[in-house]
Amino acid sequence: MGLFRKDLNNQVFKIEVSDIRQFDDEVSQIPGMIKLTMGEPDFNTPDHIKKAAIEAINENYSHYMGMAGDIELRTAASEFFNEKYGVSYDAQSEILVTVGATEAIATALQTIFNPGDAVLVPTPLYPGYMPLITLNRIKPIYIDTRDNNFRLTPDMIKQAIADNPDETIKGIILINPSNPTGISWTEDEIIAITDEIRTQKLWAISDEIYSELTYGHDHISIAKYIRDQTVLINGLSKSHAMTGWRIGFLLAPKSMTDELKKVHQYLVTSATSVSQRAGIAALRDGKDDGRIMNVEYKKRRDFVMTEMKKMHFEMAEPSGAFYIFAKIPEGYNQDAMAFCKDLAFNHKLALIPGTAFGESGKGYIRLSYAASMENLVTGMERLNDYMTENK
């Protein structure tokens, strides 16, 4: 029997596999391709973490963990976030271990919003959010930050709410540091933004997965200033090069965590036991693993920015994460997808079209410098060849 549309949740037909994944899959088939596409550290997981996982296997950590996560891992997380960012969460009642930050996002959205509620969405935005917003029948209210060099302001929040008086706006999505722009807010900016969120009585869904990857300054958590209205998302994928281990965290006040736990349980039961034991080693014995990677990322960022500016790309200087979000120079194809496909198929360099991050990404491309310097050097040579040939 064939599949009939009426048999499925109609929201499923409104979403697609992300443009990032589709584009990456397409260009990966081209021999000799240099891919600066994916948001994944090119470093391997540190050996001390792998050793902890091997020990966990040998010690038979192969059974269900508590649905909130290994209490030793939650304790390590509580200590880590307190020491690093000055935010205090009780390990027993205010922290959940999730299957990566992605599950944390899904759990937060399903817990906070009713179908028909609205959420403020500053753009450009990591595309993992929008399909989950669609599936949960939440209405996105976009805040285009292009005209302010991708920096959100309290006035933007206030204006978006004023422009939608009939909507039940319950929250705002914040990614700091940002994917795709690499923007990281200053403390003054965070204080101003959180003051407005407090005034508007919104939940801040604060995705801080890149918190250990900042340049020239320490990360400041939004929860430091608006803890009682924040659902904080973090994890080990970027900070400890553990993307495949799938360990994330949800941190929130106890009353919210009690509700988040219900949704989390029915989505995944619990995170993988062996990965959780590895996570303890990451947070306790590898507190500064991310900072070691930072040194290399900064060298790569500076090199790529210098080369792209020579080619007349404009960009906001990334102060966090490992992305450059650059405006395609005038005189070239402003259709970002067409630009990236032409570059990939004719010069074997893959970048992500800005439209993967929403309408405000039109005319932009995203480059990940979480790649070897060798590949970045060759990539910039190929990009320069392309730009020269297509003047």
From TrEMBL:
Keyword presence, Protein transport: no
A Pfam family reported for this protein in Swiss-Prot or TrEMBL: Aminotran_1_2
Aminotransferase class I/classII large domain residues: 32-376
UniProt organism field: Dellaglioa carnosa
One GO MF term attached to the UniProt entry: transaminase activity
EC number(s) stated in the UniProt entry for this protein: 2.6.1.-
Record key words, sorted: Aminotransferase, Pyridoxal phosphate, Transferase
Stored Gene3D superfamilies: Aspartate Aminotransferase, domain 1, Type I PLP-dependent aspartate aminotransferase-like (Major domain)
Identification of the protein by name: Aminotransferase
Top-level class of the enzyme under EC nomenclature: transferase
Top-level taxon of the source organism: Bacteria
Protein family membership: Belongs to the class-I pyridoxal-phosphate-dependent aminotransferase family.
Cofactor(s) for this UniProt protein: pyridoxal 5'-phosphate
